[in-house]
Design goal:
The chain is of the alpha/beta class. It contains seven helices and ten strands. Helix content is about 25%, strand content about 20%.
Length: about 280
């Protein structure tokens, strides 16, 4: 007897807290890791450091610093997936640790191989001692999916050494005002950029199975500063002529007109960090 097919989740906009978001996204990435790596693995490569769908490569961007200065540095990759970025870092002589909330994503990291540690943990509760790392990086990892980005950023600051650098990329906030479509329909504003209500996919019982959170550009800057960092640079990669591929709502058509990725380059401030709200 054939099993009934599971119904498609309902897409909605509603509140979703820290615990619900974490649980939903851990499950989503465990279920979808195989498909994700099959669909995007070639573009990402096994040992490249790509900041986003535009294809900006750390080799040319040097947002973590010159490659020759990475040797011997302790680096934490947050939301590592199959650890492609960590593999590139290791090739430069760095000592990366690849962290992801999804066990299945890290199984793909094992499949590809590498000699660096893989850690399955939530970015909001990093299992490392204070001052364990020189650098931290995250290419579309963790921060788009957490209800409290300051919780994550403060944890990253805690595990960084004085003067440590954090670089992270997220969907450019302006994209939330447009439909997530790669074609012409994705070029007309369909909602308020200032509506911070999370995007949630939920099952028939109303349980979230995927959550993504929106922060405006100003929100992101304030999150960085309030968490004890100094914003050094904000990079908005332009769509390169060589990249003819589509990735979800990212495409050459949209990429030539509106930004798709925002990369925040931050350094650990030694000023006192205000207490967390609440």
């Amino acid at each position: 007897m054939q099993e009934p097919e599971a119904s498609e989740p309902e897409a909605t906009r509603r509140t979703a807290g820290v615990t619900e978001s974490s649980r939903a996204n851990r499950g989503w990435w465990d279920r979808n890791a195989d498909e994700y790596q099959t669909e995007h693995g070639t573009f990402l490569g096994d040992d490249r450091f790509v900041w986003g769908p535009e294809g900006l490569d750390e080799v040319e961007a040097e947002l973590l610093g010159p490659p020759e200065e990475l040797k011997g540095r302790d680096v934490l990759e947050i939301g590592a997936g199959a650890a492609q970025c960590s593999r590139w870092l290791a090739a430069q002589g760095a000592r990366p640790v690849a962290l992801d909330i999804s066990h299945r994503q890290l199984q793909h990291a094992l499949r590809i191989g590498g000699t660096f540690p893989l850690v399955c943990a939530d970015a909001g509760a990093l299992p490392f001692a204070d001052g364990s790392f020189d650098l931290a990086c995250s290419a579309y990892g963790a921060l788009p999916f957490v209800a409290d980005p300051r919780l994550v950023l403060r944890e990253v600051r805690r595990v960084l050494r004085p003067g440590g650098r954090l670089v992270f990329s997220v969907t450019h906030p302006i994209r939330w005002a447009f439909p997530d479509e790669p074609g012409p329909e994705g070029l007309s504003v369909s909602g308020s950029y200032f509506d911070r209500t999370p995007y949630v996919e939920q099952d028939e019982e109303g349980r979230a199975v995927y959550v993504e959170h929106h922060r405006t550009l100003g929100d992101r800057v304030r999150d960085v500063v309030a968490s004890g960092f100094r914003l050094v640079d904000l990079v908005e990669p332009e769509w390169p002529a060589w990249n003819t591929s589509e990735w979800g709502g990212w495409s050459p058509l949209r990429g030539n007109l509106i930004p798709g990725t925002a990369i925040f380059v931050c350094e650990r401030s030694e000023a006192a960090v205000p207490p967390a709200e609440g």
